[in-house]
């Protein structure tokens, strides 16, 4: 009896150890990055406007560059922020349905919608990279990517 109870406790502990609580979704950079990237391609493309913001004073940006880069960042962040909650909601629904035993073919429409939204977010990221590179001088870009 005690062995069975101990086995049950260990199994339950291990099962919950792999669960992500709502608090963990916003804590810890590693967990946050893995759970909330709304892009199809992650970890392979630079977040140039974030780098620009981090090195704003070091880049000796002109007023025109500052205005353009600020607009690029606002447009990109706005696009991604509007997509992210939709993606997260659909991902949660699919995950819950899969855990509940739903047939994969019944989840296809939601998976396709997730893919479409992630593709849209990825395109916003690609446009951001392209537009940012076109605003920066080769020297400024070299400072960011070194």
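^ Assign residues to that structure.
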């Amino acid at each position: 009896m005690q062995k069975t109870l101990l086995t049950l406790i260990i199994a339950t502990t291990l099962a919950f150890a792999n669960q992500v609580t709502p608090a963990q979704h916003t804590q810890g950079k590693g967990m946050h990055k893995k759970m909330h990237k709304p892009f199809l391609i992650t970890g392979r493309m630079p977040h140039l406007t974030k780098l620009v913001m981090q090195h704003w004073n070091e880049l000796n940006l002109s007023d025109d560059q500052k205005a353009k880069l600020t607009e690029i960042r606002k447009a990109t962040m706005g696009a991604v922020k509007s997509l992210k909650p939709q993606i997260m909601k659909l991902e949660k629904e699919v995950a819950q349905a899969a855990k509940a035993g739903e047939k994969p073919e019944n989840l296809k429409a939601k998976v396709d919608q997730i893919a479409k939204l992630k593709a849209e977010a990825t395109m916003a990221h690609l446009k951001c990279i392209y537009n940012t590179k076109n605003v920066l001088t080769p020297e400024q870009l070299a400072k960011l990517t070194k």
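DSSP finds seven helices and no strands in the chain.
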